[in-house]
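Hi V.,

Quick status before I head out on leave. The structure for the redesign project is tokenized and pasted below; the design run finished overnight.
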């Protein structure tokens, strides 16, 4: 499975962006997905996760209530809608897949598939 994140960009604080994570391998390939981010000089941080059945979704505390993760299995795509963005949300955002379609976890080392990230920059 190959994953490709897109949708990043420059946005003012308080604005919104929607990231997309497109997966290859066809719709018969089932996997759980997590979004992670890495700011300059910091480690990779879990943001949000969703399994194949789409429920329940789960979030890192600092984004709870502002970010929403969803997926369209027919399109093999997972989305991350980010509202009320803050300068501290600035980072490279990555999506990752776990071959267990019902996996639930926030440790990046447990994810099997990674793709290139997309940069999100939030100006104050």
């Amino acid at each position: 499975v190959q994953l490709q994140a897109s949708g990043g960009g420059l946005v003012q604080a308080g604005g919104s962006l929607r990231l997309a994570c497109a997966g290859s391998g066809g719709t018969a390939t089932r996997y759980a997905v997590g979004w992670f981010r890495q700011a300059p000089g910091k480690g990779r941080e879990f943001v949000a996760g969703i399994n194949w059945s789409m429920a329940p979704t789960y979030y890192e505390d600092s984004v709870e209530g502002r970010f929403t993760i969803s997926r369209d299995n027919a399109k093999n795509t997972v989305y991350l809608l980010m509202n009320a963005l803050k300068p501290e949300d600035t980072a490279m955002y990555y999506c990752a897949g776990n071959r267990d379609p019902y996996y639930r976890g926030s440790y990046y080392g447990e994810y099997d598939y990674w793709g290139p990230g997309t940069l999100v920059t939030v100006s104050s």
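Above is the designed sequence. The mean pLDDT is 94.

G. will cover questions while I'm gone.

Best,
W.
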